[in-house]
Amino acid sequence: MAQPLLHGCHGRILEIDLTRGGVTSRPLAAEVVEDYLGGRGLATRIFADLADPACDPLGPENVVVLATSPLLGTKAPTSCRGHMVFKSPLTGVIGSANCGGSWAAFFKGTGHDVLVLRGRAAEPTLLDITPAGVEFRSAADLWGLDVHQTSDRLLEDVARGQKARVLCIGPAGEKLVRLAAVMNEKNRAYGRAGPGAVFGSKNLKAIRVQGEERTAIQDEAKYRDALEQSRYLLKQAPVTKRLLRELGTVGLFKLIDIMDMLPHRNFQDNVHDEGRLDRISGETVRDEILVKPGACYRCPITCQRHTRIGERIGEGPEYETTVMLGPSCDVYDLPSITLANYQCNELGLDTISTGGTIACAMELWASGALTAADTGGLDLSFGNHAILERLAGMLARRAGFGDQLAEGSRRLAARYGRPELAMHVKGLEMPAYDPRSSYTQALGYMTSPTGACHLRGGYAVSLAFFGGSREIPRFSVLQSPIAIRNMQNHGILQDSLGICRFTGFAFSVEPWARIVSATTGLDFSTAHLERVADRIAALERLFNFRAGCTAADDCLPPRFAREAIRVGGEEACVPAGVAERLRADYYELHGWDAEGRPRARHLAELGIRA
Length: 610
Fold this sequence. Notes:
Distance between the termini: 43 Å
Number of strands: 19
Shape: globular
Number of helices: 27
Helix content: 40-55%
Strand order of the largest sheet: 2-1-6-3-4-5
Structural class: alpha+beta
């Protein structure tokens, strides 16, 4: 058996050149781990060192970096997540995607902390990674298979007694669909910003890993105490103790509606018939289609829902999927939403962007900008639930009108002369929280480095509204920039620690500081971790600025300034002047100039090479 490893890391970066078939294993400097931790931070640092911000996202010069964290392989709750960084083919700025499952843990078990993918293979390729090395194999017989078929085929091929995990793309990635995800455990997704298209552009179908190296703990007593505290807090918080365990993420559905944040008809309003909402609630999922709950590796929360519709079995739908394929399309039919969700998972699609793009198409149809002559005869009326699964399939394969949907909502709406109907930031479709109901959420979308992402932008709904003493006024111009900066930094640390966002419902950074310090033997105090988060935020912003992103891109679609919704019985929107003030104050808090560019002095203080 391999010896335990120091500092929660193997100290190795595995770099693969797909063009030349080259493999290099090189050291990971300890100071990089101290400065960037792991996961998102470590991947961003290495990506920024290797990638040209001006590169074609679908060209061989794009780089993909997957990083694990020091906690991966320990018993820290939810510590299973890997992080992927790349230049997004959907947005043209940094792509940053996070995923649960167990693939990242098995990859770390091969003796590496980071995987770097460069170049483009001449033919469809499978990478086999074990502690003994890397083997390049033809994936010609896998090309065209869906995610589930690919995973089954590759796991059947593993020798008896051996354990393996598969990371792969489906037909959507092969067809360079800009909404394509990279999947593991069949239904776990590195979903946002199109990483599947980047894999497809590199002719990389799948990466199979086999590894069981252990992660050492440097201070067992301190580790056990901190671990007990974190588990206790997770068992006390209502959301992690009961709601997510009993109903899954779709259990948040009614809470978001009560807060007037649930979007309807492509974010035209937030008005729903309560009887229709009941048809797709977490309680209805539990009572009508649930087979059993499930969990990611090392996760006690158990929010997965294994479900069945007729003879079809799959996972989900999750909260975001339910809303974006449901009410955002004026659909309240649970079987149709669930089957479309299965289709997205099997074909390798981001369900948020898929739902957002379909909703955009439906509003284009309603406005008359899009007609049956454009869609090949398809009826894209709001509420047409019967079309969802078919549209997802067409989108993933770029079949017929699906070829236009595959480009995302921003390009689709611009094509038909109505760019204002695309609900996106920086080209990334907006998730299932209406920003007019909270300036904090609005600013989070605006300033997210990857575009309209609640996770990269700051999970304001969890910390601002379910956080007890942390709750802030919804429409505070003064407090929102501070709140969202803190929320974003908290999210950066969660992504860099390789843990789940849902732990934020139960506790903040302090228990994690104790756990990671005990694991690594290094002094990761809360103050040190805050500095790590500031450093990562600045590095992401610096890459985006060099890729052409400016303050003008940190904005919401015009709908949110011009069209009010009812929030708490009052009319609410995000006026242009308010958005500008929020953005300016946010930049100043970060040490960035008026254009959102990190100042040289700020970079020097953080130790970032400009």
